[in-house]
Write a structure and sequence with these properties.
binds magnesium ion; elongated; mainly alpha
Length: 171
């Protein structure tokens, strides 16, 4: 069994990851309505990844014989008036999730829970990548978003993104 504080935080993180999936679905829906299917695809894959994150933590708790508490997932409540609102909300959210992962890591570190620290290493790295991706999206939109032809090309580029299962797999 893990330390209670650590397992409580991991339980909360399951909810946060599922909320992330919800948020990205909402973003997918925004772009679907805009007719930008490439952007919609990009956010759909984000949503799939977030569900994976939740499942990894879920499985980790099960493997360690910890109680699992599934709580209600909040409604995505962000209002998007323009494309850039979505991109900036995405980055802001990833920064929030990074801080949350770091909080769990810190709790594990304090009780010398080396197993959880090692488990979370993957998430620490993943959050670095998520933030980079979110920032790249903003940069691309700043460069190309105002020109219709460039936006079309960017949309095509994002349409090519494919889903792949996370490199971290728990049996
Ligand atoms: Mg995540």
């Amino acid at each position: 069994m893990l330390n209670k504080k650590v397992s409580d935080l991991l339980n909360e993180q399951i909810n946060k990851e599922l909320y992330s999936a919800y948020l990205y679905l909402d973003m997918n829906n925004y772009f679907d309505k805009r007719g930008l299917n490439g952007f919609a695809n990009w956010y759909m894959i984000q949503a799939q990844e977030e569900r994976d994150h939740a499942m990894l933590i879920y499985k980790y708790l099960q493997n360690n014989d910890c109680p699992i508490k599934l709580t209600a997932i909040a409604m995505p409540d962000k209002k998007f008036k323009k494309d850039m609102d979505v991109l900036k909300a995405g980055l802001e959210h990833e920064e929030y999730v990074t801080a949350s992962i770091h909080t769990i890591y810190d709790a594990a570190y304090k009780v010398k829970d080396f197993r959880t620290m090692q488990f979370l290493d993957w998430f620490v790295k993943e959050q670095g990548e998520e933030e980079t991706n979110a920032r790249d999206m903003i940069t691309k939109m700043e460069l190309f978003g105002t020109d219709q032809r460039s936006l079309y090309m960017l949309n095509q580029e994002l349409a090519a993104r494919t889903y792949s299962a996370p490199s971290l797999v728990l049996d």
